[in-house]
Specification:
Elements: E1 4-8, H1 12-24, E2 29-34, E3 45-49, H2 50-59, H3 61-69, E4 72-81, E5 84-97, H4 98-111, E6 115-118, E7 132-135, H5 142-146, H6 148-151, E8 154-157, E9 161-167, E10 174-181, E11 184-194, E12 197-204, H7 206-211, H8 219-229, H9 231-234, E13 239-240, E14 256-259, E15 264-265, E16 268-270, H10 285-302, H11 306-336, H12 346-354, H13 366-377, H14 380-406
Parallel strand pairs: 1-2, 1-7, 2-6, 4-10, 7-16
Antiparallel strand pairs: 3-5, 4-5, 8-14, 9-12, 9-13, 10-11, 11-12, 15-16
Amino acid sequence: MSVKVACVGGGPAGLYLSILLKLRDPSHDVTVHERNPEGTTYGWGVTYWRALLDRLHAHDPVTARAIEASSVRWNQGVAHVRDLTARQPGDEGHGIGRHRLLEILADRARSLGVHLDFEHEITPDALPAADLVVAGDGVRSTLRAHHAGHFGTQITMGRNRYVWLGTSKVFDAFTFAFVETDQGWIWCYGYGFGPEASTCVVECSPETFTGLGLHRASEADGLALLEKLFADVLDGHPLHGRPSGAVGGAQWLHFRTLTNRTWHRGNLVLIGDAAHTTHYSIGAGTTLALEDAMALAAALHEEPSLPRALARYEDERRRALLSVQSAARYSALWYENLPRYMQLPPQQMFALLGQRHSPLLPHVPPQLYYRIDRAAGQVETLRRLKRWLGPRVARTVQARTVRPYSEGSVPRT
């Protein structure tokens, strides 16, 4: 049966959902509404991993091939600590410019007959007439905020400050750089997303942020200071606050971890960052948004009614998110307690950086944890136990973390 769907927000979630809906039934009437002009975006590059690419190929090979062709790859991680460097092999990662990703998705959606409505802001008081309205308008979703009491939105602000930057330095691996200053540690994550550019996310504690004077520095002065601090890893390349066509300039932010008690209300459903966020240090935001779209498209196609489809979508995605949300929470905590790990030799610190998702790590002395983990890695039985037990512990801990709120605690915004 043909349905009319309005996707509010022209990000990856809404665009990919529109593609999947039209692929399943070309008679669906699907419109994506985006308040900004076409080609306008924020941020620099986004990351994803091979597992997502395989799923994209399974759902729509045309889109998958275009994304893969526009992506860069890496299979190593590099950590610079003071004047020392550690390098380790890792899983195959991919980076693509956010602007290019949105361009690919928009072109594919248009080719399938999706209506793209740019420079049109949808307000909660004037929703489009549609069988289903999909709120893909991000962490600051106005559609969700209008019904905050129903959705049970909870936002937790992270302690550290961070800023999203770009650079003409092209990193050949996923790169970490930790710099010790008189005001404390400051660090960056760098990864390529094209032949001429990389993303560079800089983070530090609030004490270091104010101690370095970044709270009162102009954008130009702040970038100049960061270029000086990270001169070695940047090889003399500049940092940039905004890409061409970006909305706004570089801003230092606190990460907002967002959860909701429920994801749907009548014919309104949340997707992507409007429904949930995970700390940027695990690089999962775009992947989760696209996986939301896959799950929602399948549920709408396979379930006999809209209420059942939305309930299935929410239940499936909530379960899938438990281990990811746990990993993100402990990853953020690792960085918020960075000095705890910086006295280790670089190779050991880098090893624990890779273990930062563990719920046990915050409770075990770092060097002891490293020795235990290294010993376990040398015994096949213990390796198998760790691979089996780790995700289960993470899901259990995360479920216990979110349950008190989902059973009726007061939302905090």
